[in-house]
Design brief:
It contains 5 helices and no strands. By secondary structure, it is mainly α. The chain has a single domain, classed as Transferase(Phosphotransferase) domain 1 (Transferase(Phosphotransferase), domain 1, Orthogonal Bundle), CATH 1.10.510. α2 packs across α4 and α4 packs antiparallel against α5.
């Protein structure tokens, strides 16, 4: 359940880069914040298409939700990389 879409569908031709780690970290962060998976475990297509909804509870800042959305982006070319995640988190610490 932590695999990036490009690892679930190897025929998609999507590049395999370090951004798979960003996706997996996004899934872990989602679990830690909302106590559940971002994707329905029985629906692999949700994970392959990165379809998820942000729960309304517990309350999480808009900035953190935006970070998660960027980390769980289906297209690895649009997904943020590890250094961008670090930069955003560093900025959030100062807010």
């Amino acid at each position: 359940m932590y695999r990036a879409p490009e690892l679930l569908d190897l025929y998609s031709g999507l590049p395999i880069t370090e951004k798979i780690d960003t996706f997996s970290l996004g899934v872990v962060m989602f679990h830690l914040l909302f106590f559940k998976s971002p994707f329905h475990v029985e629906f692999k297509l949700d994970q392959m298409n990165s379809r998820f909804e942000m729960p309304s509870e517990p309350k999480v800042s808009r900035e953190v939700k935006q970070l998660l959305t960027k980390m769980l982006e289906m297209d690895p070319d649009k997904r943020i990389n590890c250094s961008e995640v670090w930069s955003i988190i560093d900025h959030l610490k100062s807010i």
